[in-house]
Specification:
Strand order of the largest sheet: 1-2
Structural class: mainly alpha
Largest sheet: 2 strands, antiparallel
Strand content: under 5%
Shape: elongated
Order of helices and strands: HHHHHHHHHHHEEH
């Protein structure tokens, strides 16, 4: 494609929603940690060599912090006076490990994710007013952005609170209150290989921890909101298919005119093929994101119970607020996954109802048999799946809370 053709194409899409509008926020977060989740066809793609350098630097930094935090657990795990510090460090480590596993899982499925993106881009509504009105693209983009921005904002607020509170506290005590007891501290518990107290290396160590916290938090954000973006587009397509089926009307001349009847039959065949395509894309989505979804549920259950346990130990207001934000973030992450999966379930089940509501009784046997096919396929529940172990829905949220509470009771009993 020539430069003039690209300019004309870009100009023709101004004012219309594009596929990249759904994917831009996840890609932005991925790029900040040096990850390119799929092969981009756009002209604004970042050179892979720079992303690779950024990612390697982040991995080295994470490995350093992982070793420092693990040392804390090894040294103080049997010290009852340090139980809060150990529990919090375990939560940090769990958060870090899951983030890295989610990133590497998506990278391992990069070829499959790239194929999924190309397929979804190929069926995305064309940049014209009538097509986008039929799909209600603006409505789904607004909903998707609301949840993506809200979740991203919550997690960024979490990492900023944990990373900068101790330093702001030190600045207030040292410069405003002029307290002689003001001491520099690190935002996260770790064992440093050098003495950073009262020298410039304090800021180096502090920066290392903050960058590591951002990287692991962004790993959660980027993977989850990428799932939101893909899932919301599937919901949009299923809802469009349901409307097309329910509004499908046989041509009045079909009974007497074979050409009109063949035209109606071809339209129905196109809708059936479209439904098959959506079912296939749903399977690929679960294949790509199944492991990250499973990791979300397994680790969030453990972290929620550890955080809940710490909140029962009578800590200071500062620690309690920090733990409450952490708890809210973990529960919100699971709730949104369940919510989006439930949207997909409702949208996919609507296809069967729409097929029944159309004027199928006016068609002959061939038309009715074809309609039976799409109705039967629509009986299959389409949802997000945490590999083969768990079909996700709002009921899963209840199961998650029950499991977290049971683990909390076990840890509380052991402590007492």
């Amino acid at each position: 494609m020539s430069a003039n053709q690209i300019a004309v194409a870009d100009k023709s899409q101004e004012g219309y929603v594009t596929f990249d509008d759904f994917m831009s926020l996840p890609i932005f977060f991925y790029h900040t940690i040096g990850v390119d989740p799929y092969e981009s066809t756009g002209s604004k793609s970042v050179p892979s060599r720079w992303l690779y350098v950024i990612f390697i630097m982040h991995v080295i930094n994470i490995a350093f912090n992982f070793g420092a935090e693990t040392t804390v657990i090894v040294l103080y795990y049997d010290d009852m006076e340090s139980i809060v510090d150990v529990c919090m460090t375990i939560c940090y480590l769990g958060h870090d490990i899951v983030s890295l596993l989610k990133i590497f899982s998506v990278q391992r499925q990069r070829a499959k994710l790239s194929a999924l993106v190309r397929e979804m881009e190929s069926i995305f509504p064309a940049p014209n007013r009538e097509e986008q009105r039929k799909y209600q693209v603006d409505y789904y983009l607004r909903r998707c952005r609301f949840f993506m921005r809200g979740f991203s904002g919550l997690y960024l607020f979490l990492v900023v609170t944990y990373s900068f509170y101790v330093y702001i506290k030190y600045l207030i005590q040292h410069w405003i209150l002029e307290s002689v007891d003001a001491e520099k501290a690190m935002p996260y518990y770790s064992v440093s290989p050098w003495d950073w107290h009262d020298n410039w290396s304090y800021y180096v160590m502090y920066l290392i921890q903050v960058v590591a916290a951002y990287m692991t938090t962004t790993g959660h954000i980027s993977t989850d909101i990428l799932i939101y973006a893909v899932n919301m587009q599937l919901v949009m397509h299923f809802d469009y298919l349901s409307r097309e089926l329910s509004e499908f009307r046989l041509n009045k001349q079909s009974k007497n005119d074979e050409k009109c009847y063949v035209k109606d039959l071809n339209l129905l065949q196109d809708l059936i093929a479209y439904h098959n395509k959506l079912l296939s894309l749903s399977d690929v989505t679960n294949s790509v994101f199944g492991l990250p979804l499973l990791l979300n549920f397994l680790t969030s259950s453990v972290m929620v119970c550890f955080v809940g346990f710490q909140m029962t130990l009578g800590l200071s207001v500062y620690h309690t607020v920090k733990l409450a934000i952490f708890l809210l973030s973990a529960v919100t992450e699971i709730y949104l996954i369940c919510y989006f999966s439930d949207l997909l379930i409702v949208a996919s089940e609507g296809v069967a109802s729409a097929a029944y509501e159309m004027s199928w009784f006016e068609g002959d046997q061939r038309f009715k048999k074809m309609l039976v096919l799409i109705t039967l396929r629509a009986q299959k529940i389409v949802c997000l799946k945490a590999t083969i172990f768990l079909d996700i829905s709002m009921e899963t949220m209840t199961m998650f809370l029950k499991m977290s509470y049971r683990l909390f009771c076990v840890i509380r009993t052991m402590y007492q």
